[in-house]
Amino acid sequence: MNENAIVFEKVSKSYPLYHHIIGGIKRFIFNIPGALKAIKSSRYDALRDISFEIKKGETVGVIGRNGAGKSTTLGLIAGVMKCTSGSITVNGRVAPLLELGAGFNHELTGRENIILNAVLLGLNISEVKERMTSIIAFSELGDFIDQPIRVYSSGMLARLGFSVAAHLNYEILLVDEVLGVGDQQFQKKCYDKILESKQAGMTIVFVSHSMPEIEKVCGRVIWIENHTVKQIGETKQVIDAYIKAQENHG
Amino acid sequence: MNKRLRHYIDLIIVLTDKEMKLRYKSSILGYLWSIGHPLALALVFFVAFKVVMKIQMDNYALFLICGLFPWQWFQNSVTVSPTLFLNNASIIKKVNFPRNIIPFVSVLQDMIHFILSILVIAGFMLAYHKAPTLAWIYGIPLLLLVQFLTAYGASMFIASINLFFRDLERLTTIFMTLLFYFTPVIYPVSMVPERFKFYVNLNPLGPLMISWRGLFLDGKLELEPVLFAVLYAILLYTLGSFVYRTLSGRFGEIL
Q1: Under an 8 A CB cutoff, do A105 and B18 touch?
Q2: Domains and CATH numbers, chain A
Q3: Nearest-angstrom CA–CA distance, A242 and A250
Q4: CA triple A178-A180-A186, angle to 5 deg
Q5: Which pLDDT tens digit goes with each residue over B158-188?
Q6: ∠ CA A75-A81-A85, rounded to 5°
Q7: What is the pLDDT of residues A157-190, one digit of tens each?
Q8: Quick one: which of B36, B167, B130, B173 has its CA closest to A30?
Q9: Considering only CB atoms, which chain A residues are within 8 Å of B168?
Q10: What does the alpha-carbon distance between residue B45 and residue A221 come to, in Å, rounded to a whole number?
């Protein structure tokens, strides 16, 4: 039996620096050899030779400075990108916790957006309908649920998004620094829900810049520095080393 | 596999429903808006070519309506295509769902608007003492399918390429204007000089538009243009899905 939820084996990810072509067809066509050369020579290494294993039911934090490769790692787990070399194994359905309002439409009501978002994230219409009451109750939006979400505050949007995410079918949840919004009481509710999923045996990968948050939920931490794994280990240990490195740096 | 298909269909339903709601949210005027544009165009061309330039044609207004409505569907689908993936960047970067659903739904909802506007065409026909024929029963679904494949193929092609060459959007606008005047929409093929007639069939939209107008105005489908239209539909669909499949693995990187 396979105990691992996510396995990265010597994973590298690089891609061309697309701004050479985003510049436009005109530039590309008038200078084809130059453009092709530029694309070939200017590959950007987003991740280099990364290996780690995440067991089923684990909650793992991913830390590192901006641009270190954290989001690329999540993108590879979610399957929206493919790695250039190495191999990635993901056992279980993956659900991303989207950033504020992503996939929402501002003219539609909260209720309509729940259906839209939940189906995009993998539920069938019938499943959303079954869970609708529970999603609305969790969001605590009350009568606002039938208002267009352009009247929502950012906190209310975050509630709506999290409530949908909390009701998806998944075994692996990806959280990319999205919980910094909403009032304290709702944030607590989100954490409770995350802890609850954790107890229910979900695997959670948690990207954040907030060390207290990481310490609160994660059992292990992967520290990504300079596009490769710097350290993997117990939360406390890695965070201490990370903070120390930051202080020395700046 | 069955479960995936089920989800695929649900995605199409939900996204199409969203587009329809957005279009008609404010009022029933939404419908008038979508038929308003081709009607206004018809008026402009009627004034220019019939009133001013005195084109020698009977029922020119009806002729225009029968061509402009199907054209408008194609034009709308292609014009929005460059930004389809760009506008959905936030979910494309995070969620692994079949992205060709986005152009599919975009073309589908334009098709639904076109189907609704067939009522307007029928209304104009009654005003000109013409009646729908039995050929409509098989002709309309056939041409709908052909035009859907044509527009879906073009839309996948443009939406995918535009992520890599962002100025394709402007080229699309220019290209569509050229295509409009090179396609026999506001003039009949019979008025095209003999030595240029050959080129009408080289235009991927020419045979399709000729077929639509033949179906509405004369109540029948001519074999030759229909065959050409089917051929172009298959070609464009194949090209569009090939480009989409080749590039879609990189969407997450470039957005």
Answers
A1: yes
A2: 4-249 (3.40.50.300)
A3: 12
A4: 100
A5: 999 999 888 888 999 999 999 999 999 999 9
A6: 110
A7: 888 988 898 888 888 988 887 666 667 787 787 7
A8: B167
A9: 25
A10: 68
Q: Which residue has the tokens 């290996």?
A: A51
Token pair, residue B251, equals 């969407």
What interface predicted TM-score (ipTM) does this complex get?
A: 0.84
**pLDDT, mean of residues A212-240:** 91
Give the distance between the most distant pair of CA atoms in chain A.
Answer: 60
Cβ atoms B191, B60 nearer than 8 A: no
In chain B, residues with a C-beta closer than 8 Å to the C-beta of A25 are: 165, 167-168, 171
Among A15, A24, A107, whose Cβ lies nearest the Cβ of B166?
A: A24
Confirm or reject contact between B92 and chain A (CB < 8 A). Answer: yes
Please, are residues A168 and A198 in contact by the beta-carbon 8 Å criterion? no
Residue of higher predicted confidence among B96 and B235: B235
Contact of B172 with B158, CB cutoff 8 Å: yes
| Per-position DSSP letters for B159-202, written without gaps between them | HHHHHHSTTHHHHHHHHHHHHHHHSTTSS-GGGS-GGGHHHHTT
Q: How far out from the chain centre does Cα B90 lie? A: 27
Question: How many residues does this entry show for chain B?
Answer: 255
- pLDDT per residue as tens digits for the range A53-103: 999 989 999 999 888 888 889 989 998 888 999 999 999 889 887 776 678
Average pLDDT over residues B7-35: 83
How close, in Å, is residue B227 to chain A by CA atoms?
A: 34
Distance between CA atoms of residues A70 and A78, nearest Å: 13
* Pairwise CA distance, residues B149 & B103, whole Å: 11
Kindly tell me if the per-residue pLDDT of A1 is higher than 50: no
Task: Tell me the C-alpha distance between A81 and A74, whole Å.
Answer: 9
Distance CA B13, CA B18 (A): 9
